[in-house]
C-alpha cells in the first residue's frame, strides 16, 4: 500500500491555496506536513481525505481507505466514552473497541459521559476513534492540540503501532512526535501563485 | 471555435452584452411604450369589464415574465451544474429579483383588477395562490444566495434548490388547483392568437395585438435587466476575486 | 445504518428537546388557536383538521435545524462522510430518526389534541391516517432544507423560508383528506396524492440532500 499524491492543486473558497503538491507515503511511514498558519494544510488534508474535490491532480488511494480527524472530535456529549467509540466501530464495521481504549488510556473513563471529559481527555477520545475505524490511512489535522506531554507520548505510541501494523499516516502538526518513521514535508514551496489574469475565467480569478 | 459556450467567458459576455444592451433597452422601451399606449388609449372598452380590462397590458406580460424568469433560472442552473460556467450561475442570480418583482407586479395588478371585477382584492383562487407560492420560492432562492459567502458553494446550493423548487412549484400548482377551483379565467391569450377570438371568454383580436407587443416589450425589458444585473454580478465577483488575489501575494 | 439510527434516537432522548419540545409546541399551537378565533365550538370543529395539520407542520419545522447542525459543529459529519456508508443512506437515516422522534409522537398526540378542538368523530381516523402518511414527507423535505443550511450561522430562519413553500403540496393534500372525510366527500384522490408525494420524496429527495451536503462539507 502506498499513498501517492501527484500534482494536487487545492482550493479554499474558490481560490487556489496550494499548487502541484506531490508526495508519496509508503506503508509503515508517516509524513508530517509543516507550514505557517493559513498556508492550506487543512485544505490539503481534507482534499486528500476526499472531503472536497481537488482542482487538479490525483490521490492514488480512494477515500474508503482513509480516516480523517479534523479540529473537532466528533464526540457526542450525552453519550458515554464507550458508546461514542462503539458507534464509530459499528459505522466502520470493526469489532472490539478495547484496543482503542487501551491505546489512549481511556479505560478508567469508559463509563463517563463524554460531556464530562476535559479538553485533553476529549481529544484522546477523538484520537481513539481513529484506531476504531480500522482504516489503513490516517489523515490527521493538528492531532496534538490540548494534549499534555504524556498524552502526546500515548499518541506517538498509537501512531507507531498503526505504522507497524502496515498502516500509514499523514499529519499536520508542529510538535515533534519523536517518530523515527516520520518524514517532514514543508508545504511552503507549494504555495499557489496568483493565476494569470488572461485565463478563460480570468475575469474572476 | 465559434461555440455558444464562448459567451460563458465573463469578459466576452461583458463585451457582447455591452454592445447589445443599448439596442435591447431601446427595443424594450419602444415596444412597451407602443404596446401600453396603444392598449390604454386606442382600444375599446370591454363591454362587460369596462375600462378596467386595460390593466391586462401590464398584468398578463408581468405574469408571463414571472414564470419565464423562473424557467430561465432553471435553465441557467442546469447549465451551471452540467458545464460549470460561472456566468450562468450569476445570470440565474441576476434574474431572481427581477422575477420576484414581476411576480409582485402581477399580484398587485391582479388585486387592482380583481377589486372591481370580483368585488374583492384577494381571493384564494388557484392562480393567485400559485403566484403567491411562486413569490415565496423566489424569496427563498434570493435569501439562500445572499446567505452563503462562498460563491461556488452558493451557486451549487441555489442550483439544486432551483431544480427541487421547480418540481415542488409544479406540484403546488396542481395541489392548489385541486384545493380550490377559482374565479380566474383560464389562460386565454394563446388561444386568442391562434383563433379569431369572438366568444366573450377569449381575449379578442382588438386587444390581442397591443397585448402581444406589450409582452414582447416586457420580454426585452427582462433581457436588458438580466444583462445589466449579470454584468454587475460579474464585476462584483471580480472585485472579490481581486481582493482575494491581493491576499495571496 | 442501524447504529446511526440508534445513536440519533439515544441522543434525542438523552439530550431532551426531541420528543418533548415538538409535542409541547404542538399543544401550545392547539391551545392558542381558540384564543385567536374565539370559543365557538362549531367553528373550531370546522377548522380542527387544518389547525392540527398546521400545528404538526410547525412543530416538525422547529427541530429541523438540529438534524445536521449538531453533527456539523462537532465534526461528526466529516467522519460520517468518510465512513463506508453512502451519504444518501446517512441522509435517509437522519430523516427517519427525525420522523421517529418528532413526526410519530405528533401523529400519536393528534387525536388527543383533537378533543380540544371538537374534531367531529368521523374525522379521527382520516386525520391520524393523513398525518401518518404525510409527516414522513415533512421530515424528508425538512432534511433537504437542513442540508442546504447546515453551514450557515443563522440558518434557522432561512431554513423555514426555504422549507415552508416546499411543504405546500403535502399540507394541502393532507388537510384536504381529513376535511373531505369529515364532510363525507370523496377523499380518495387526496389520500393517493398524499401517499404519492411521500413515496416520491422518500425515493428521490435523499439524492438531492446528499448532493447538497457534499457541497456544504467541502
TrEMBL record, chain A:
Assigned keywords, A-Z: ATP-binding, Cytochrome c-type biogenesis, Hydrolase, Membrane, Nucleotide-binding, Translocase, Transport
Family annotation (SUPFAM superfamilies): P-loop containing nucleoside triphosphate hydrolases (SSF52540)
Transport recorded as keyword: yes
Keyword presence, ATP-binding: yes
Class of this enzyme: hydrolase
NCBIfam families xref list: ccmA
Descriptive protein name: Cytochrome c biogenesis ATP-binding export protein CcmA
Biological source species: Thalassovita autumnalis
Designated gene of the protein: ccmA
Automatic annotation (TrEMBL), chain B:
A Pfam family annotated for this UniProt entry: Cytochrom_C_asm
Any one GO molecular-function label of the UniProt entry: heme binding
Transmembrane segments: 20-43, 55-82, 94-116, 128-148, 155-176, 207-228
GO biological process: cytochrome complex assembly
Subcellular localization: Cell inner membrane; Membrane
Keyword Cell membrane annotated: yes
InterPro entries associated with the record: Cyt_c_assembly, Cyt_c_biogenesis_CcmC, Cyt_c_biogenesis_CcsA/CcmC
GO CC terms in record: plasma membrane
Function (record text): Required for the export of heme to the periplasm for the biogenesis of c-type cytochromes.
Name this protein carries in UniProt: Heme exporter protein C
Source organism per UniProt: Thalassovita autumnalis
Taxonomic classification: Bacteria, Pseudomonadati, Pseudomonadota, Alphaproteobacteria, Rhodobacterales
Gene: ccmC
UniProtKB/TrEMBL annotation, chain C:
One GO process term, biological-process aspect: cytochrome c biosynthetic process
Transmembrane segments: 12-35, 47-64, 96-117, 129-150, 157-178, 190-213
This protein's record includes keyword Ion transport: no
CC terms in the record's Gene Ontology section: plasma membrane
Highest taxon above the source species: Bacteria
Molecular function via GO: heme transmembrane transporter activity
Keywords: Cell inner membrane, Cell membrane, Cytochrome c-type biogenesis, Membrane, Transmembrane, Transmembrane helix, Transport
Subcellular location: Cell inner membrane
Record's bilayer topology term: Multi-pass membrane protein
PANTHER family linked: CYTOCHROME C BIOGENESIS B-RELATED (PTHR30070:SF1), HEME EXPORTER PROTEIN B (PTHR30070)
Family as reported in the entry's similarity comment: Belongs to the CcmB/CycW/HelB family.
Protein name: Heme exporter protein B
UniProt gene name: ccmB
Amino acid at each position: 500500500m502506498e499513498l501517492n499524491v501527484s500534482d494536487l492543486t487545492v482550493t479554499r473558497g474558490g481560490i487556489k491555496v496550494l499548487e502541484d503538491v506531490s508526495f508519496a507515503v509508503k506503508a509503515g511511514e508517516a509524513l508530517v506536513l509543516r507550514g505557517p498558519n493559513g498556508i492550506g494544510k487543512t485544505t490539503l488534508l481534507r482534499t486528500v481525505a476526499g472531503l472536497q474535490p481537488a482542482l487538479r491532480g490525483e490521490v492514488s488511494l480512494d477515500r474508503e481507505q482513509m480516516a480523517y480527524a479534523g479540529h473537532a472530535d466528533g464526540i457526542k456529549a450525552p453519550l458515554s466514552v464507550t458508546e461514542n467509540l462503539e458507534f464509530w466501530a459499528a459505522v466502520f464495521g470493526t469489532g472490539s473497541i478495547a484496543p482503542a481504549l487501551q491505546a489512549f488510556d481511556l479505560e478508567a473513563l469508559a463509563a463517563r459521559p463524554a460531556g464530562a471529559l476535559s479538553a485533553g481527555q476529549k481529544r484522546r477520545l477523538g484520537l481513539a476513534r481513529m484506531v476504531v475505524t480500522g482504516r489503513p490511512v490516517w489523515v490527521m489535522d493538528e492531532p496534538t492540540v490540548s494534549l499534555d506531554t504524556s498524552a502526546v507520548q500515548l499518541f506517538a505510541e498509537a501512531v507507531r503501532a498503526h505504522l507497524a501494523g502496515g498502516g500509514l499516516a499523514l499529519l499536520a502538526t508542529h510538535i515533534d512526535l519523536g517518530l523515527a518513521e516520520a518524514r517532514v514535508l514543508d508545504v511552503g514551496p507549494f504555495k499557489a501563485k496568483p493565476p494569470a489574469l488572461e485565463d478563460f475565467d480570468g475575469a474572476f480569478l | 471555435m465559434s461555440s455558444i459556450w464562448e459567451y460563458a467567458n465573463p469578459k466576452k459576455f461583458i463585451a457582447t452584452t455591452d454592445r447589445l444592451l443599448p439596442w435591447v433597452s431601446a427595443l424594450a422601451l419602444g415596444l412597451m411604450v407602443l404596446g401600453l399606449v396603444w392598449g390604454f388609449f386606442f382600444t375599446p372598452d370591454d363591454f362587460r369589464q369596462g375600462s378596467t380590462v386595460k390593466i391586462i397590458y401590464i398584468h398578463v406580460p408581468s405574469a408571463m415574465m414571472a414564470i419565464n424568469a423562473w424557467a430561465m433560472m432553471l435553465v441557467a442552473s442546469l447549465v451551471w451544474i452540467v458545464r460549470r460556467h460561472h456566468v450562468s450561475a450569476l445570470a440565474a442570480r441576476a434574474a431572481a429579483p427581477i422575477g420576484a418583482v414581476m411576480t409582485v407586479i402581477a399580484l398587485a395588478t391582479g388585486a387592482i383588477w380583481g377589486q372591481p371585477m370580483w368585488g374583492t382584492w384577494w381571493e384564494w383562487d388557484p392562480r393567485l395562490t400559485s403566484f403567491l407560492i411562486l413569490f415565496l420560492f423566489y424569496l427563498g432562492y434570493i435569501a439562500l444566495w445572499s446567505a452563503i459567502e462562498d460563491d461556488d458553494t452558493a451557486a451549487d446550493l441555489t442550483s439544486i434548490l432551483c431544480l427541487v423548487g421547480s418540481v415542488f412549484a409544479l406540484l403546488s400548482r396542481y395541489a392548489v388547483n385541486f384545493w380550490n377551483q377559482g374565479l380566474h379565467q383560464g389562460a386565454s391569450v394563446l388561444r386568442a392568437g391562434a383563433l379569431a377570438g369572438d366568444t366573450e371568454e377569449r381575449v379578442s383580436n382588438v386587444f390581442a395585438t397591443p397585448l402581444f407587443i406589450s409582452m414582447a416589450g416586457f420580454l426585452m425589458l427582462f433581457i436588458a435587466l438580466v444583462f445589466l444585473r449579470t454584468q454587475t454580478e460579474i464585476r462584483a465577483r471580480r472585485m472579490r476575486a481581486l481582493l482575494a488575489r491581493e491576499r495571496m501575494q | 445504518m442501524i447504529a446511526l439510527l440508534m445513536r440519533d434516537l439515544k441522543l434525542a432522548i438523552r439530550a431532551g428537546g426531541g420528543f418533548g419540545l415538538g409535542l409541547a409546541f404542538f399543544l401550545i399551537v392547539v391551545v392558542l388557536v381558540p384564543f385567536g378565533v374565539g370559543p365557538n365550538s362549531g367553528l373550531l370543529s370546522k377548522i380542527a383538521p387544518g389547525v392540527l395539520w398546521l400545528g404538526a407542520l410547525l412543530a416538525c419545522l422547529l427541530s429541523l435545524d438540529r438534524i445536521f447542525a449538531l453533527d456539523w459543529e462537532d465534526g461528526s459529519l466529516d467522519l460520517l462522510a468518510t465512513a463506508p456508508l453512502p451519504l444518501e443512506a446517512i441522509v435517509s437515516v437522519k430523516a427517519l430518526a427525525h420522523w421517529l422522534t418528532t413526526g410519530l409522537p405528533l401523529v400519536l398526540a393528534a387525536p388527543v389534541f383533537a378533543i380540544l378542538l371538537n374534531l367531529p368523530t368521523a374525522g379521527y381516523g382520516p386525520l391520524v391516517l393523513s398525518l401518518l402518511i404525510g409527516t414522513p414527507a415533512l421530515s424528508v423535505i425538512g432534511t433537504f432544507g437542513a442540508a442546504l443550511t447546515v453551514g450557515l450561522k443563522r440558518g434557522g430562519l432561512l431554513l423555514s423560508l426555504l422549507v415552508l413553500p416546499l411543504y405546500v403540496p403535502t399540507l394541502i393534500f393532507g388537510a384536504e383528506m381529513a376535511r373531505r372525510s369529515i364532510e363525507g366527500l370523496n377523499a380518495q384522490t387526496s389520500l393517493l396524492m398524499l401517499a404519492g408525494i411521500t413515496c416520491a420524496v422518500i425515493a428521490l429527495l435523499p439524492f438531492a440532500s446528499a448532493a447538497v451536503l457534499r457541497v456544504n462539507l467541502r
